[in-house]
Every structure is written in structure tokens, then in C-alpha cells.
Amino acid sequence: QLSKIGAGLMVAILKTEAEARAWIARTFAPAPAQWERLERFAAMLVAENGRQNLVAASTIPHLWVRHIADSAQLVAVGQEGEGLWMDLGSGPGLPGVVAAILSERPTLLVEARKRRCEFLRDVVAELGLGHVEVAEAPLERLETRAAGTISARAFAPLDRLIALSARFSTESTQWLLPKGRNAVKELASLSPAWQKMFHVEQSHTDAESQILVGRGRIVAKQRG
């Protein structure tokens, strides 16, 4: 299945677990150790989902499409980024853990919920992700630091997300924000100054979902 967005760009939509794995192989050519980590993370996610509701149970049979490839596509979109990858509201580590495995960049997983942070720390230890830090705190209480990439899969409405995370941005910060079917609508609700920083990319995992991709520093005076 193909989906079109922007200036006639056609994007193949991943429909099966085999397609998701094949796309990851083509796009990233993961080393054996990276594949092992992805497989182990997927298994840990499924096991933990029986103890706490990390992802919808209905998505488990489609885990590689709905969660692993869905997270990995942000690494592909943001491959020119460098420095700290900051994942807001990381939850079970989506997309942060997948990004850390595939990009091997220093990664900060920001999550306020204690049980989810416990799971994230277990994942980091089990997978040997020494370049990943778990921050158990609301974003508002986190010490300011410069982020090379800011991602947020299901954190907050766009205007609030940007307002809360603006202090972590620099002139070179990438913003990778999956916003589902409401991406264009949410982008249109921002001030013109914020809007011009972003463009819309088609999701590889859902024909009706889109990703807001931006670059730059957001300052308070840009608020609409």
C-alpha cells in the first residue's frame, strides 16, 4: 500500500511483521548485536505488558509494525541529528529505546511514572545500553540541558509539548513528533513563528498518520 503526502511523494506503508523487519534491515543494516537488542526489547515489552499496561494489548500481534518500526522511522527521518536524543514521556521506551539501539546516540528517557521507569531501567541494564539514562521526573522538574533531538510519541498536545520542551532546544535541535491523524490540524493551531519551523512527513506504519519534523530553537516570544 502506498500513501501520498506533500509534493507527490509516495511512501510504502508497512502492513506485516515481515515487512517491518525487512524495512529495518534495508534502512539501517543493523549489526547482529543491534538485532539481538531489538529482539530482546520486544520480548521484554510483551512480558511486561502482562504486568502493566504499556501498550494496547490489541497491538501485540503487530508489535514490529506498530511499535518497533514505528519508532525506528524517527531514526531514519532524523539521521542527520547528533548529540543528546531526548525522548519525552518515553513510557515503555518508545521511541527512545529503539532510537538508542539503532542510532547509538546518548539518549535520555524522560518518564514520570515510577513503574514504567523501573521497566526502563531493567531494559537499559539487560540490553547493556550504557549510553542511555532514565530520568524519573516530570519534564517541568528536569534540569535544562541541550538536546540534539527531541522526540515525543504520545506526550501532550503539540502546543503544550513545545512550550514545555522549548528550553531544551538549540539552533540545531531536531524535533521528531509523531502526531497521528491530527498532525496538520495541530500544526495549524500554532503561531506562524512555530509553524514555519516544521514540515510534515508521512508515517511508514499508518497511511493516515503523519510526523511533524522540525529544526531550530524555540523561544518564549514565539508563543502564539
Structural description of this entry:
The N and C termini lie far apart (38 Å). A seven-stranded mixed β-sheet has the order 5-4-3-6-7-9-8. A two-stranded antiparallel ribbon has the order 1-2. With 224 residues, it is an alpha/beta fold. It has helices at residues 17-28, 32-49, 63-77, 96-103, 114-127, 158-165, 183-188, 192-195, and strands at residues 2-5, 9-12, 85-88, 107-111, 132-136, 149-151, 174-180, 198-202, 210-215. It is 38% helix and 19% strand. Residues 1-8 have low confidence and may be disordered.
What can be said about this structure in brief?
38% of the residues lie in helices and 19% in strands. The chain has helices spanning 17-28, 32-49, 63-77, 96-103, 114-127, 158-165, 183-188, 192-195; strands spanning 2-5, 9-12, 85-88, 107-111, 132-136, 149-151, 174-180, 198-202, 210-215. A 7-stranded mixed beta sheet has the order 5-4-3-6-7-9-8. Strands 1-2 form a two-stranded antiparallel ribbon.
Cα Rg:
17 Å
| Uncertain regions spanning at least 5 consecutive residues | 1-8
Number of helices: 8
Approximately what portion of the residues adopt beta-strand conformation?
Answer: 15-25%
Mean pLDDT: 92
N-to-C order of helices and strands:
EEHHHEHEHEEHEHHEE
Q: Oligomer, anyone?
A: single chain
Order of strands across the widest beta sheet? 5-4-3-6-7-9-8
Largest sheet: 7 strands, mixed
Which structural class fits the helix and strand makeup?
Answer: alpha/beta
| CA(first)-CA(last) distance | 38 Å
Number of strands: 9
